[in-house]
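Example 219.
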Amino acid sequence: MIQISPSILAADFSQLGQQCKMVLDAGADMLHIDVMDGHFVPNISLGVPVLESLHKALPQAFYDVHLMISHPLSYIQPFVDAGADLITFHLECDSPVQQTIDAIRKAGCKVAISIKPNTPAEDVLPWLEQLDMVLVMSVEPGFGGQAFMESALDKIACIRKHAQEKGLDHLMIQVDGGINPTTAAACVKAGADVLVAGSAVFRSADSKQAVANLRGQEG
Ligand code: DX5
Ligand code: ZN
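Predicted structure in complex with D-xylitol-5-phosphate:
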């Protein structure tokens, strides 16, 4: 089952609640919350108060929080309290990886590690048993609307192969950046099952059609 996680970075922030409701009604499985600190990535986006408000307005939604921040360990509890269901942090961050995994689990959240385009897939393999999901970045994190990097496909395939060899059938592989119906199909073929899409969903005139197209279905 392919899941679609629209990235709210591409939403109109003046109408955020309404737009999130719209994409959920259109069939999206979760909401992807891109948190940037202007340090780990060269951009600042949004943080805990935005998640908190969204969660109050749309309590049933599943919140997929992507932390592009240097010190995720210091912010786990506030994001969990605000409503995060799954927290992704970067293998390249400055927090200790094991402690960060443990803190997310202890807070009762699902846990994922993300790797940037220049980080080899092999680097995340030692952590697979402890994870619910791996996020393979298919653009340099920091901005929406960038072109998909084909190098993500081999990395997805490598992680899927190792997960299968280890019997980790539950491991989700998410891909983020430049996802449209064409790149989505390639990612699914490689072994991805959670597709993040900002522009392709929020900038579309028909979000139901957009979500269906990403799943490889007619609208
Ligand atoms: C990039 C973010 C992505 C981004 C995706 O740093 O992690 O989630 O919003 O946007 P699109 O789908 O427009 O490439
Ligand atoms: Zn993201």
